[in-house]
Amino acid sequence: MRITDDDGVLRLTFDRPDALNAITGEAAVELADAIEDATPAEYDAIVLTGAGDAFSAGGDLEMLAETPDTSQDAYEEVTASFGRAVEAMLECRVPIVAKVNGDAIGAGLSLVAVSDIAYAAEDATFSCAFVRVGLVPDTGGTVMLPHIVGLRAAKELAFTGEFFDAERAADLELVNETVPADELDARVADTVDALAAGPTETIGLMKQAMHENLGRSWDDALDYENLLQSQARTSEAHEEGVAALLEDREPEF
């Protein structure tokens, strides 16, 4: 992973362009470490992307070819690496923007689904390719993909491993928008600027509420929503937002 701090924006780049940014267990741990350390007090946004022409081709094939001795060993291995990275992304209070500069395959596609906002270059290709190597979608693939694209579409993508283009990814809402490749940086920058202008702590509470409420009953979900709203209501960001509205000015979060 290439990790850079750019004036309040944490930029995380899969940096194996010769291997189409295939992700090793070590890279997944580095991703988890970086995201776990990111807080709204330090960062306004996290941008996740790939070097070269691909976002990520998924799990590294050499790693996948090494069969663990037991299923328990396999469980511990994936939990400590890819699983930990996804948990960090889902729990992180800083919004994560996926800049899908090229192909997003297997775990690469899953990471797009787990990100909070995603933009893709028009020539990017996608595939939930786990079935092609006899695996269940991981890296959050069975968790977030059905919520985003719908259960039937998720089953189709997972069961067939079909390749599809960025236009269909946008139609499925796997990505928010597709743009020409030479406009991708600018599109992501616009959203990062908008996030930076907002109250990051409050956005973090929004994200937490949405994720925690995915599997809750209505009563529990609304109660949890009310709990987080009570935290927001007593925050400096809320006080500044109301003051700015009353004073007819832009808020300074």
Give the SSE map:
Elements: E1 2-6, E2 9-14, H1 25-36, E3 45-50, E4 54-56, H2 61-65, H3 71-91, E5 96-100, E6 103-105, H4 107-114, E7 117-121, E8 125-127, H5 141-149, H6 151-160, E9 163-165, H7 166-171, E10 177-179, H8 184-196, H9 200-212, H10 218-233, H11 236-246
Parallel strand pairs: 2-3, 3-5, 4-6, 5-7, 6-8, 7-10
Antiparallel strand pairs: 1-2, 8-9
Report what the structure shows:
By secondary structure, the protein is α/β, with parallel strands linked by helices. 49% of the residues lie in helices and 17% in strands. The chain is built from 11 helices and 10 strands. A hairpin with a 2-residue loop joins strand 1 and strand 2. The chain starts with a strand and ends in a 7-residue tail after the last helix.
Query: Main beta sheet: strand number and arrangement?
Result: 6 strands, mixed
Shape by Cα distribution: globular
Could you list the spans in which at least 5 consecutive residues all have pLDDT below 50?
A: none
| Widest sheet: strand ordering | 1-2-3-5-7-10
- Structure class: alpha/beta
Q: Which terms would index this structure?
A:
49% helix, alpha/beta, six-stranded mixed beta sheet, 253 residues, globular, 11 helices, single chain
What can be said about this structure in brief?
By secondary structure, this protein is of the alpha/beta class. The chain has eleven helices and ten strands.
